[in-house]
Design a protein that fits this description.
It contains 4 helices and 5 strands. It is α+β, with helices and mostly antiparallel strands and 126 residues long. It has a 5-stranded mixed β-sheet. Strand 1 and strand 2 form a beta hairpin. It is globular, with a radius of gyration of 14 Å. The N terminus and C terminus are likely disordered.
Length: 126
Amino acid sequence: MVYGQDPIRVDERMDQGDPQVKIVVEQEYGFRYWLWEVKASSRTGVKGYFRKQTADRGDQWYCTGNPEDHLTIGEWKKISYDDYKTMVDSGEYDAHAHIHQGDDSHLVFKEEIERLGGIDSEEVIL
């Protein structure tokens, strides 16, 4: 897909047999940025898996090392802040996640983000 084109909604792609979900991840308030691609059949499944691996582990959980050490499905790729910002600003993603501790990690799909007014890529905190 070319940056700036209107992406097909993740639900439409899933219905068409393309289960790939592209998630931009901001780790620990700008410490690192990632692209996480997961094959999934539903948003609920992706969100449930993320929650089970982060928030459901309690306030004492902390993302040590790389997120792929904790979220073991899918493909992880470390990206630069500039690549992260380009993806966020162009809408070239399906969901955005923040990963840090159990009490502040979250994953939000793009349609929810759009309804809330978007991501400020200069702040990167929803």
